[in-house]
Amino acid sequence: MSEQRKAHPAHTRQHAKTQHEKSQEDLLNELHPVFKEKVNLILVDLRKIGWEPKIIFARRTEEQQRDAIRRGASHTMLSWHVEHTIGLLPAGSRLQVVRGNAVDIVDRRYGWEGKAKSKEFQFWKDLGTAAHKHGCQWGGDWKPVKYKGKDGKVHTGDQRDVAHVQMFYTEEREQDSFTA
Questions:
Q1: Looking at domain 3-177, does it have CATH number 3.30.1380?
Q2: How far apart are CA 130 and CA 108, in angstroms?
Q3: Of the candidates 113, 115, 109, which has an alpha carbon nearest to the alpha carbon of residue 46?
């Protein structure tokens, strides 16, 4: 585990406890119904093999996402945790509005501490397997990216977010219903 990751409050057990005062059910209810069902199945799969999964984040406000960027826990405002994040894809004479949902899941016994500091911790691998099984994307599959650090230099880092699970869904809209 890098010193950089250790320094961020988003990756500590204490922060995981205090970030959300919401119940697991409240966090699940923030999700699109299809994604909520998939997340429930992921949680069940993890429990079946002895883990104690806990959702840490579901939806974030723009301010919460800005705070995550300031802490170094995220590098973009274009996060599927943030409701305003959308994409548009042309589909013939229509546009598909692409939205997403995301959750961060940890084992409640570890959070990001102890064995869970390693991105190779078995829980993270099992989370990835369960996410894939249920048609979701897993942040542990992300490739290294380049980003500009606070020092102004370009860095390449392991940006795998092993606690992150996301799903996209589309809504079709008539193209002329959008204005520039």
A1: yes
A2: 17
A3: 109
